[in-house]
Amino acid sequence: MREYINNGVRLGWLIDPKTKSVEIYRHGLEVEVLLSPTTLSGEEVLPGFELNLNKVW
């Protein structure tokens, strides 16, 4: 994911269904880890986009 961010990606999600965790990568910021979130927001990169994770878990 760091390689993607270093090459210009502004937002990346690494979703692990086994642990029900999500690592959120953003340019210039530390990785944020969420445990069992129900949704993910596209933030300012994809305004209005929301991913429902209930179907993933």
Key traits:
globular; three-stranded antiparallel sheet; single chain; mainly beta; 57 residues; two-stranded antiparallel ribbon
What is the gist of this entry?
The protein has 57 residues and is mainly beta.
Report on this model:
- The chain is mostly beta strands.
- The chain has one domain.
- The chain has one helix and five strands; from the N terminus they run H-E-E-E-E-E.
- A three-stranded antiparallel sheet has the order 1-2-3. Strands 4-5 form a two-stranded antiparallel sheet.
- The relative contact order is 0.23.
- The mean pLDDT is 96.
Average pLDDT reading = 96
Instruction: Give the number of domains.
Output: 1
What structural class results from the helix and strand content? Answer: mainly beta
DSSP helical segment count = 1
N/C terminus separation: 22 Å
Report the principal-axis shape.
globular
- In N-to-C order, the SSE pattern is HEEEEE
Give the number of DSSP strands.
Answer: 5
| Helix proportion | under 10%
- Report the radius of gyration as a whole number of Å: 11 Å
> How much strand content do the residues show?
35-45%
Question: Uncertain regions: pLDDT < 50 for 5+ in a row?
Answer: none
Biggest β-sheet description = 3 strands, antiparallel
**Strand line-up of the largest beta sheet:** 1-2-3
